[in-house]
Amino acid sequence: MARRRTHVLVTSVIGVLGLALLALLGLRLLTDSVLRQLTDGTLEGADYWTSDPRILSAGLGFDGIIGLPDLDEQTVRDAGGSWYGGLRCSDGEDPTDQNRTSAATTATIERAYVGGADVDHDDGLPVVFSWPVATETVDPTDFAFTLNTGETVFAHAAGMNPNWEDDERNTVVLFGDLGNRLPSADPDAVFPVRLEIVADDTPLVLVGPGGREVSAVGLTWTTDSSPYDAGPVLVGAKLNRVGSAPVGEGGVDLLERAGAMPNDEFALYGGGDFRLRVLTSGGFSPDGVTGLRPDEFEEFFRLRGRGPGGDTVVLDQVGVDYRLAGGTLRVVGLADLGRREAEYDDCYQEDRDNYIDIILDGDEAAARSIEAVEIPALPGGYRAFYNPGGPGPEPFPGVRYTAPGPPDVQPVTLALDDPMRVTRARAANGPAGRILGLAAATLAVVLAVAVYWRRGWTRPRPERPPARTDRPPRAPRGA
Known about the structure:
alpha+beta, 6-stranded mixed β-sheet
């Protein structure tokens, strides 16, 4: 009987542990699904921007608004963020918190960044590489920042969001205690002046032409300015054919359903002939809070091309056929922002990443005449871009926000003959994959123990010897 009770007790404990582990595994599958897909190493038609691996930009983005306990007006104000309290959506729906502010909670960051649980009123810093990264190798310990004070620091968290689509993944976003809001000329200013990629347990890997994988360890980048001097700029521009279908769009299931997808040229315009993708040093926003809209090309951009006589032709309007050397070309609109809508307003939800697509229709020879993308940022004519630390439509008084971006011209790389893209299969050893592997191994051990106990209980028992019948009768007590 004692053996049976022991077996029942042990079996019950194993059952409870197994169910608990299965529940935990299921919860991790749900909550870690974003991080798991962000760190699976997948690339599909991802752009590389130069023939050699390099860091294109790595300046401080903004200060103190990432990793808040909640998103409400007072919490955001206390952190030095901006809150669009007067926002009204034209469709009658209530604005989301993400429509009102670019600040983010710790809970949000934890789901999509390695080390995200440690983020608390952190600064943001995007690192833009010329080649896409093998995302399973991304960790905060890859990035050693030297501050203008001489101190070397590491970020708390690193991840691919919002540059998460399989055809993107050039930009790693880091959060940590990386600086303050003073302009670089102020003697009390603190900001990173140097980045070096350093070796850790999983050294950062970049993927380039032909799928060649190289270690990023040893790459460096330097600056002498802060985002409170000047805002984001262009660091790349590449012209590709559109083709017959989008390539590499999406790649993270939950993020695809978040509201900004599909946002490619087919979803917005039914296609196009050419895609001029620009790569930016930071998230581009009209004010730091609201999203850029597909119909705002004329407010922010213009293109420069070579005319039939060798003169410069400026393409600054949508829907106009411009005559260039070799034919005509027309700007259709912007893509890789958010969904197509009947009416765009300040509630427009876009992906807020470091990529903007300018869609073009026309002759190939004319497309080959495109030479540069320009952000004029001219007062009274063109608007400037801000990163997510900008003032928004309703800045709080007395708060220092990031500066607007300067006028900028970026030469265009023609990728019509060689698309300069790379595809890579999923890796199995990312951070989230290691967590799931450990959970699966633990579950296997529990099941193995359960099987052992089950077999031990059902194994045939040796027969007891028959009771003796030749014993004399026992004398009565007290006799």
